[in-house]
Structures are given as C-alpha cells and as structure tokens.
C-alpha cells in the first residue's frame, strides 16, 4: 500500500547509510524500536488495559455509577481499552515481524481508536457545557435516546473515517513498490482533513466550551451565598473546585500536546520515502509513545477523578465503606427543580 505505512515500513526496516556516494560515510543498522523500548511500550499497554478495565469493572459492579453522564465515560474507557488490547499488540507485531497486513491493520486500528477517543472527549465536554450553560434545558437536550445515538454515531463515524483510506489503496505486493502521484495527493488531503476534523475543530470547540464554563463558574462564585438557600447540598458542589478546574486544564494540555503530533505524523507519513536521519528516528520513536498517553490518562482524568468513582474504587477495590455521597444535585429556578445525576465538582 503506497505510503499508508510509509513511516512504519521505512523506520522499522534497516537504516543504512548511502555508501554509493561516499564509501567512508558511516553505515548503521537499527530497528525502529529496540528491545528496551518494546518492553516499555508493553508496560504502557498493560497499564492502559488495567486503568480502563478498572473503570469498566467499577461501572459493572456499582449500579449507582450507571448514569447517563457516565455512559459517555464508559464508552471512552472501552475505546481506550481497545487501543491497549488490540492496537499496541498489533503495532508490536508489526515492529518485530514486519508483516504488511499486520502493519496496515495496526495503523488503521490505532487511528480508529484515536479518532474515537477524540470524539468521546469532545462529547463529554459538550455534556458538561450543556449542564453548566444551559442547565434549564439539560434533561430535555440530553436524553437517553440522544446519548445512545451520539455514542453509536461516534463509533460508526470513527470506523468509517479510519478505514476509508483503504478505498484508494491496494494491498498487492507489487503495489507496495509503486509511487502513485494521484494516490499520494489523496493521502495528503486525507491527512489534512483528519487534522482539521479531529484536532483543530475539536480543540477550538473545547477551548470555547471550557472557557465559557470557567467564566460561568467565576460569575457563580460571586453569588454563592444566594445559591445556598436553593441547594440541597453545600454550594461548593455546584461550583468547580480548583481541583476540577485543574483536571480540565490538564485534559486540554494532553489533548493538544498528544493529538497534534499524532495527526501531524499522519501527514508526514505520506511524503516521498527517504532515509531518515538518526534524530528524526528518535522523534518518531517519541511520537509513538506520546500517542498512547491519552488512552492511559483519559480514565484517570475523566473518570477516576470523579468523586463517585473514587468512592466506588474504595468500596470495591480497597474494601472500604466510603461515606455515601449525594449522587443527585438539585437546584431550583422559580418553581422548577433541575436534577443532575452526578457530582458537578468532579465534572
């Protein structure tokens, strides 16, 4: 498949200096990931499986966690879990065995889970935004049916967006050595579209929504005393604690810092195959590890940082009976009461 696996195939094969032009030029052979880095990637794979599996286990074990809000978090954990169960093992096989079908499958699958993860994080941000900014319309806008449709749409859209590149590529052995200008041009346009659709637009939307959330939180802090009389729990639960704000900021930093290199590397994969300088090899190695940071930290920042999940973790894993938290938040506007399933301070 021309240039679909350009980076992997060119990095994972032997790096040899161009001795034809200069016999004294140093030659070296090296695999893309040496044994210590393969071990490190395997450890990251196990950690991804452990933390995301823990999230799914807690939701399965504790009925109180099976809320509409946590459904998005469960779907995100499943997406990240798949990157550890399938994506990384396929990538390791590609690096060690250099089987083209396995390499293509690993690239497609990792891209599928990456797009799915990005869309899930954006969906979670939308849920938080609707509750904070349009709280009066929260339950009318975010219904169970719409949540299920949105989740299903993300999985379907992520799958189609990741495999569509196969429609203009061939996997025949002879096609691997051909350079097709038309295919190369389509690949570049596809990579640019991925950068815009799955990084730039989600990042701008999340910056706007979380910025608006911070602004609303700041304004509500000024009228905290007035809200206390309408709340059935301390007003601190309605306002984002600094810890919650820090989690949102860290989420944004990880989103921008990890997914931008991932999608930019997609664009770099489709340039004409050339021998890579040693420094660029290390850059590619670093980017491989960076792309697996979100699946590892998403369940910690988006899920295990929530109070209800922390208490469930104490009860189920550490066998401690935690103080039961108030699971529903009520507040009133005139004669109308609004209920939110979860703890806002951890949203």
TrEMBL record:
Bilayer-spanning residue ranges: 37-59, 71-93, 99-126, 147-168, 188-218, 246-266, 286-305
Alphabetized GO MF terms: G protein-coupled receptor activity
Annotated membrane topology: Multi-pass membrane protein
One Pfam family named in its UniProt record: 7tm_1
Compartmental location: Membrane
Residues annotated as domain G-protein coupled receptors family 1 profile: 51-302
The keyword Membrane belongs to this UniProt entry's keyword annotation: yes
Parts forming coiled coils: none
InterPro entries hit by this protein: GPCR_Rhodpsn (IPR000276), GPCR_Rhodpsn_7TM (IPR017452)
This protein's UniProt keywords: G-protein coupled receptor, Membrane, Receptor, Transducer, Transmembrane, Transmembrane helix
UniProt main location, coarse: membrane
Tree of life domain: Eukaryota
GO cellular component: plasma membrane
PANTHER family associated with the record: G-PROTEIN COUPLED RECEPTOR (PTHR24243), G-PROTEIN COUPLED RECEPTOR 19-RELATED (PTHR24243:SF224)
Protein name (Swiss-Prot/TrEMBL): G-protein coupled receptors family 1 profile domain-containing protein
Originating species: Desmophyllum pertusum
Lineage: Eukaryota, Metazoa, Cnidaria, Anthozoa, Hexacorallia
């Amino acid at each position: 498949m021309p240039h679909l696996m350009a980076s992997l195939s060119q990095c994972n094969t032997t790096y040899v200096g161009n001795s034809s032009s200069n016999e004294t030029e140093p030659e070296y052979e090296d695999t893309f990931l040496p044994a210590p880095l393969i071990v490190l990637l395997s450890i990251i794979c196990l950690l991804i499986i452990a933390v995301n599996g823990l999230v799914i286990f807690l939701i399965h074990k504790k009925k109180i966690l099976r809320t509409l809000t946590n459904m998005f978090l469960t779907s995100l954990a499943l997406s990240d879990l798949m990157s550890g169960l399938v994506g990384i093992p396929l990538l390791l096989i590609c690096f060690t065995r250099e089987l083209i079908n396995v390499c293509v499958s690993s690239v497609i699958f990792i891209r599928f889970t990456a797009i799915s993860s990005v869309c899930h994080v954006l969906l979670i941000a939308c849920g938080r935004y609707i509750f904070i900014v349009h709280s009066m319309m929260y339950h009318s806008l975010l219904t169970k049916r719409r949540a299920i449709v949105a989740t299903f749409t993300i999985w379907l859209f992520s799958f189609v967006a990741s495999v569509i590149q196969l429609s203009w590529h061939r996997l025949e052995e002879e096609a691997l050595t051909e350079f097709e200008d038309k295919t190369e041009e389509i690949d570049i346009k596809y990579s640019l579209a991925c950068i815009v659709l799955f990084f730039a637009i989600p990042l701008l939307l999340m910056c706007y929504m979380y910025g608006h959330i911070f602004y609303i939180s700041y304004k509500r802090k000024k009228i905290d005393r007035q809200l206390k009389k309408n709340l059935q729990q301390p007003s601190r639960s309605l306002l984002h604690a600094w810890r919650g704000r820090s989690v949102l900021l860290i989420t944004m930093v990880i989103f921008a810092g990890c997914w931008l290199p991932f999608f930019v590397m997609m664009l770099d994969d489709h340039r004409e195959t050339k021998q890579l300088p040693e420094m660029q090899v290390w850059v590619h190695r670093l980017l491989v590890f960076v792309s697996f940071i979100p699946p590892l930290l998403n369940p910690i920042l988006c899920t295990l940082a929530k109070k209800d999940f922390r208490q469930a973790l104490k009860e189920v894993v550490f066998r401690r009976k935690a103080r039961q938290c108030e699971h529903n938040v009520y507040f009133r506007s005139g004669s109308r009461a609004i209920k939110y399933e979860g703890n806002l301070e951890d949203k």
